[in-house]
Amino acid sequence: MPDRERTLRTEAIILRRQEIGEADRLLVLLTPAHGKLRALAKGARKPIARKAGHLELYALVDMQLARGREWYYVREAETKEPFLSLREDLTRTAYASHLVELIDRFTGEQDVNRAEFALLRDALGWLCSDADPRTIARYFELHLLALAGFAPALHQCAIGQEELRPQDQYFSPPDGGVICPDHHRDTQRGMPIGLPALKTLRYMQTQPWEAVRVVRISPALHLELERLMLAYLTFVLEQRLQSVEFLRRLRREEA
To answer: Taking a C-beta distance cutoff of 8 angstroms, is the pair 200, 132 a contact?
Structure first.
């Protein structure tokens, strides 16, 4: 097999890592052109390992990988963006773990999606800014769902497809989004969604991040948005997100 097929150079975001043996680390990477890969960094846990400082969680790294039978092997690694704030602020670390868990759940091995890679890379950068991490999380969730083909219906009734009126509605994960009061009465499905929450989700779904980041959202509205989005994500993924409980516990401790 030619060398160009056995090796590749790529940017990668480190999603997860697992200790193997006495000195190795198995990494789960997200790459723009090769999707999600597993790569073994041999000797990475040794104090004198040159690669050790370049294999931090959530970092953006330039890598040279060699193909093996089960996974790739890390030949070279150089940090391009460490996202240091994510290791210095526990709250932002927790939100980074939430974004990464979502990407991990929605992305299969070697599923190529450059837009998902770019979204995660950008969102990790936003978490290092002064932007509200709750707003970042909701924006990321909506846009990741769209890229994965699960964008919630927010403008038309998810059942009848009629245009939604400017009033309180219902949000139904099994139906794929918002349903009108009439269809709610018929099906008894869905949870209430207030008009401010619906307008905010619509804005987040359709506007670029620079427009969304300056939106002022009250604590009560943040909680409503989180409740709605996590209910939908749990339904789509058919499993609970581990990062959510950590975020809730962190909030309780801070309160």
So the answer is: no
Superfamily of domain 3-81: Nucleic acid-binding proteins (2.40.50.140)
Question: Residue type for 205, please?
Answer: Q
Q: What is the rounded (10 degree) CA torsion for 55, 60, 66, 68?
A: 70
- Tens-digit pLDDT profile for residues 111-144: 888 999 999 999 999 999 999 999 999 999 999 9
Instruction: Please report how many Cα atoms fall inside a 13 Å half-sphere around the Cα of residue 170, on the Cβ side.
Output: 19
CA distance 180 to 190: 10
Q: Where are the beta strands (DSSP E) in 50-157?
A: 60-67, 72-81
Domain boundaries, the chain: 3-81, 85-254
The answer to whether the CB of 132 falls within 8 A of the CB of 218 is no
Contact 86, 124 (CB under 8 A): yes
Length of the chain: 255
85-254 to CATH, choices 3.40.190.10, 3.80.10.10, 1.20.1440.120, 1.25.40.10: 1.20.1440.120
pTM of the model: 0.93
